[in-house]
Hints:
This protein is α+β, with helices and mostly antiparallel strands. The protein has one domain. The chain is 42% helix and 11% strand. It contains 9 helices and 7 strands. The strands form 3 sheets. A 3-stranded mixed sheet has the order 5-6-7. It has a two-stranded antiparallel sheet with strand order 1-2. The longest helix has 23 residues, at 91-113. Residues 88-198 form the DUF547 domain. It holds the Pfam family DUF547. This is DUF547 domain-containing protein.
Amino acid sequence: MKALLLLTLSLFSLSTFAAPKSELWQYWNTSNEGTVIKVNHQKWQAILDKYLVSEGENTLFRYRSVSSSDKQNLKDYIRELSSINPLKLSKAQQYAYWVNLYNSLTVDLILDAYPVQSITKLGGLFSFGPWEEEVVVINNKKLTLNDIEHRILRPIWQDPRTHYAVNCASLGCPNLQTQAFTATNSEQLLEQAAKSFINSDKGVKVTGKQVRLSSIYEWFATDFGSQSDLINHLARYRPELSSLKGDFEYDYDWTLNEKR
């Protein structure tokens, strides 16, 4: 009976998963373009340098190998970011701030729960992953990962490439970038991430007349526009896709992006 209940709950979670809408949290839509403040992301970069490895079309994280001191360094980095008032930063600084915060929090959640097969196993009994859990406090406001992605990053910047920047610790996700985002490299990293994902099988796989896209393009269709807009977006980074037409299939691999 217990096994049947767990199976039912698992199927329920998978079948009812739906991506949140982009809904602006107006409080965060303020910046200071005249600031001289610069956020230091070196601790996050040190973690990436030490534990993120490229393998085939993926970047994989060596969760098993993270030392106790580096786990603490990661928590220190998150605490440092949470002590900053992002409203005092420029828009360019803010974008890097929120992307790095999202990605570092995700890695921290996996490390706290490790070993785990998928991020979808985190969260409460009736949860599909940890995205609705309050995981950080900024300006005395409790934030979830969904708040950062869907109430701040997506509605403020309205750039579909953000989906290639935030990482959900899964093989189906656009790769966690090997470089921390900064105010000066975000555009380069976004272009690099988009090109890499769209030219990978997990982004777009064409087999004869069959076209399988990442479920990202289905979940967040409103961000990519009409089918014609989406095809133009894909073809920008992979020109041969300009001739795509017809119905697409969608797929996503929630397996942990772990280097074993």
